[in-house]
């Protein structure tokens, strides 16, 4: 949100309507909802779906109706935190009040609302806003302000701090402003007189190792070295950099994310099961927790390094995206368009589509847009490595079958 944007103006002009905020914890969803309610100059009610149910909501809505249809004629802003925790019936209890305009609703959730919120509610909400994790620089400013602000922070205490300590705190907070402020508060409450906030104090407060900063290693260099060692099929180098990451304080999420990317980017179709195995290892690591979680992750590291390699998936995707961005692409062929509605046949949609299963699993027909088909465009170019060799053999056999049939696709 920035001054002059539609979102900003809707708050300042008091035209902000219902919305859903979603994103990780500590990214400002509740804070922004309270700011909006204050700017709207309306009644504001805040409940948490994990501790409140239909009974509490019904009482709230009854009071809102009295204000809306009574002498006050005032709209009530209802903020429901963790909205995804309510079931379908509980979520649907909002619908009538939303339609009548009795309330303006802001729901917050850490889950994807398109999966966690009923379609009926989503259709009555004007906008869905995604909140992203704060970057470290913003969290450093937040921590510094908390320590220096004399009105709302600890500025009157004249607490000294090392800049490196704030930088480490911001990195370890992982984009969460709440964690940043709570940690600052905890440290200040338990500092000895005249003590300076150091990186060691931050490490103790957050119960996290800060080996990256002690040893001078850069986590991103280590992650890069890990991926390149796996890509180069060197399990010894890969496990070395993995161990340095763990020793430096990298958490399961940081390492797990990179391993999941590697499984598709560098292993891919050469060993399609790699992504499933890595997912299981990362999930197991989350369940077990450090330090034993390192055993689960090391299994994934060694398996990936010892697996056959193929980058055909990312290469196919990148080439297709390059085409979309750099050239005109013809429309979807008529026989592939959706024909499951009245009037589609009059437009010629789906009429000549051949259902492959009715032909034993494969039948020659056109799938690419006309100009790409005419050029014989190919995005996926399978390698001979590992399991991908069998996929390549299968696709080659289909090509030969098609070429020998003398049929024209389409």
Descriptive keywords:
410 residues, alpha/beta, Helicase, Ruva Protein, domain 3, Zinc Finger, Delta Prime, domain 3, flat
Topology:
Elements: H1 6-12, E1 19-22, H2 29-40, E2 43-48, H3 54-69, E3 76-81, H4 88-92, H5 95-100, E4 103-109, H6 113-116, H7 119-122, E5 127-130, H8 136-148, H9 163-172, H10 177-189, H11 199-206, H12 211-215, H13 219-231, H14 235-248, H15 252-267, H16 274-288, H17 293-305, H18 312-326, H19 370-375, H20 388-405
Helix pairs in contact: 8-9, 8-10, 9-11, 13-14, 13-15, 14-17, 15-16, 15-17, 16-17
Largest sheet: 5 strands, parallel
CA distance, first residue to last residue: 48 Å
Structurally, the number of domains stands at 4
Helix percent reads: 40-55%
Going by CATH, the homologous superfamily of the largest domain would be P-loop containing nucleotide triphosphate hydrolases
Adjacency order of strands in the biggest sheet:
2-3-4-1-5
> Any low-confidence stretches, pLDDT <50, length ≥5?
none
Shape: flat
- The CATH class of the largest domain, by name, is Alpha Beta
Amount of beta strand: 5-15%
Rg for CA atoms: 28 Å
């Amino acid at each position: 949100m920035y001054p002059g944007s539609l979102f900003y103006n809707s708050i300042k002009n008091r035209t902000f309507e219902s919305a859903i905020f979603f994103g990780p914890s500590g990214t400002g969803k509740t804070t922004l909802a309270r700011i909006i309610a204050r700017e709207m100059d309306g009644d504001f009610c805040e409940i948490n779906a994990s501790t409140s149910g239909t009974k509490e909501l019904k009482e709230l809505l009854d009071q809102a109706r009295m204000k809306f249809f009574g002498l006050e004629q005032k709209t009530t802003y209802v903020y429901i935190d963790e909205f995804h925790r309510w079931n379908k019936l509980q979520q649907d209890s909002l619908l009538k009040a939303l339609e009548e305009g009795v309330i303006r609703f802001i729901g917050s959730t850490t889950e994807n609302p398109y999966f966690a919120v009923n379609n009926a509610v989503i259709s009555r909400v004007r906008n869905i806003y995604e909140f992203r994790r704060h970057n470290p620089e913003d969290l450093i400013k937040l921590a510094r302000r908390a320590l220096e602000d004399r009105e709302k922070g600890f500025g009157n205490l004249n607490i000294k701090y090392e800049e490196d300590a704030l930088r480490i705190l911001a990195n370890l907070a992982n984009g969460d402003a709440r964690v940043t402020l709570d940690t600052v508060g905890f440290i200040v409450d338990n500092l000895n007189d005249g003590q300076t906030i150091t990186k060691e104090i931050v490490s103790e407060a957050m119960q996290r190792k800060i080996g990256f900063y002690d040893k001078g290693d850069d986590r991103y260099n280590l992650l890069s070295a890990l991926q390149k060692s796996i890509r180069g099929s060197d399990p010894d180098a890969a496990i070395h950099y993995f161990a340095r990451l763990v020793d430096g304080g990298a958490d399961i999420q940081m390492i797990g994310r990179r391993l999941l990317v590697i499984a598709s980017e560098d292993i891919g179709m050469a060993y399609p099961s790699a992504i499933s195995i890595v997912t299981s290892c990362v999930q197991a690591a989350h369940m077990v927790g450090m330090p034993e979680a390192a055993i689960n992750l090391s299994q994934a590291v060694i398996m990936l390094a010892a697996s056959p390699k193929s980058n055909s998936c990312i290469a196919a995707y990148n080439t297709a995206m390059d085409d979309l961005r750099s050239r005109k692409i013809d429309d979807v062929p008529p026989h592939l368009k959706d024909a499951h509605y009245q009037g589609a046949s009059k437009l010629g949609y789906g009429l000549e589509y051949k259902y492959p299963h009715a032909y034993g699993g494969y039948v020659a027909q056109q799938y690419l847009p006309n100009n790409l088909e005419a050029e014989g465009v190919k995005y996926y170019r399978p390698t001979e490595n590992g399991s991908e060799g069998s996929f390549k053999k299968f696709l080659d056999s289909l090509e030969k079958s098609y070429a020998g049939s003398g049929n024209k696709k389409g």
